[in-house]
Amino acid sequence: MSIRQEKVGSLLKQELSMIFQREANMHYEGLFITVTQVRMSPDLGSAKIYLSFMAVKDVEEALKVVKKESNWTRRTLGGIIGKQVRRIPELNFYIDDSLDYYDAVEQALKG
């Protein structure tokens, strides 16, 4: 990954975290959303955003809520970082299941 990809990814992670925190009640049904990782495409045209949800029974349903608001999220993000990047990347949201993976490995090692 290039330095530019890392910088833009880091900027997106920071700003999206703030948006999710500020707008949780208005746009994301009060979900507590954590941005765990952002991976930028080489042309900076799209971003894979990995999310973790706290105290949620159905993470797939929570992800649907975020995806439903993705256009609004992208416009809001554009208003914040529009001066720093040439174009606002397409936002693709995914569930970060790495914590589940680590838990499973830990349990396997204990067992």
The largest sheet, given as strand count, sense and whether it forms a barrel, is: 3 strands, mixed
Through-space gap between termini = 37 Å
What are the segments in which pLDDT stays under 50 over at least 5 consecutive residues? none
Rg on CA atoms, Å: 15 Å
Averaging pLDDT over every residue, what do you get? Answer: 93
The structure class reads alpha+beta
CATH architecture type: 2-Layer Sandwich
Kindly report the name of the CATH homologous superfamily: K homology (KH) domain
Q: What sort of overall outline do the alpha carbons produce when their principal axes are compared?
A: globular
CATH class: Alpha Beta
Spatial strand arrangement across the major sheet: 1-2-3
Written overview of the protein:
The model has no long low-confidence stretch (mean pLDDT 93). The chain has one domain: GMP Synthetase, Chain A, domain 3 (2-Layer Sandwich). It contains five helices and three strands. It is α+β, with helices and mostly antiparallel strands and 111 residues long. Helix 1 crosses helix 4.
Produce the secondary structure layout.
Elements: H1 3-22, H2 24-27, E1 32-40, E2 46-54, H3 59-68, H4 70-81, E3 90-95, H5 98-110
Parallel strand pairs: 2-3
Antiparallel strand pairs: 1-2
Helix pairs in contact: 1-4
Keywords:
3 strands, alpha+beta, 111 residues
Quick overview:
With 111 residues, this protein is of the alpha+beta class. The protein has helices spanning 3-22, 24-27, 59-68, 70-81, 98-110, and strands at 32-40, 46-54, 90-95. Helices cover 53% and strands 22% of the residues.
